[in-house]
Design a protein that fits this description.
Layout: H1 3-31, H2 42-65, H3 78-100, H4 104-125
Length: 137
C-alpha cells in the first residue's frame, strides 16, 4: 500500500474519531442539557465527518485502487497527491478554527483550500481513469 494512502486512511480515521466524539457530545447534550454552547460545534462535526473522514478515505482508497502505470512512477505525480493531502487537512483546520472563532474570512479560506485540494487530487488521478475497452498501459 502506498505511503500516501496510509497517511490518508489514518488521518481520516482520526477525523472520524474526533467527529464522532463531537457528535456524541452534542447528542448527549440534547438529551440531558448541560452546555447550550455545544451547538456551536455542529459545523465542526459536519466538516470532520463529511470531509475529514469520508472524502479523505475515498481519496486514499482511490489513489491505491485505480489502475497503475507500468512505468517506474506507478501512481503518477504523487507530489500532487501529497499537496492535496496537506491542503485538505490545512483547510479543515482553518475552517474549524474560523467557525469556532466566528471568523468568516477564515471559513472562506478553509473552504478555498479544501476545493483546491480536490482539484489537485483530480488532476493527479485524471490520467489513471481509463475506459474498460482500453488496455492498462
Amino acid at each position: 500500500m502506498p505511503r500516501l494512502t496510509i497517511w490518508m486512511v489514518r488521518t481520516s480515521l482520526l477525523h472520524l474519531g474526533i467527529g464522532f466524539t463531537v457528535g456524541m457530545l452534542m447528542f448527549f447534550n440534547k438529551g440531558i442539557p448541560f452546555d447550550p454552547s455545544l451547538w456551536r460545534l455542529l459545523p465542526v462535526h459536519i466538516e470532520m465527518v463529511l470531509l475529514g473522514w469520508t472524502m479523505q478515505l475515498a481519496m486514499g482508497a482511490a489513489f491505491w485502487v485505480l489502475p497503475r502505470f507500468s512505468e517506474r512512477a506507478r501512481y503518477g505525480n504523487e507530489r500532487l497527491g501529497w499537496l492535496a493531502y496537506v491542503l485538505l487537512n490545512t483547510g479543515l483546520a482553518i475552517f474549524i478554527y474560523g467557525s469556532l472563532s466566528s471568523g468568516t474570512l477564515l471559513v472562506f479560506v478553509g473552504r478555498c483550500l479544501e476545493l483546491t485540494s480536490v482539484f489537485c487530487f483530480a488532476l493527479m488521478i485524471w490520467s489513471r481513469v481509463k475506459p474498460l475497452s482500453q488496455s492498462a498501459s
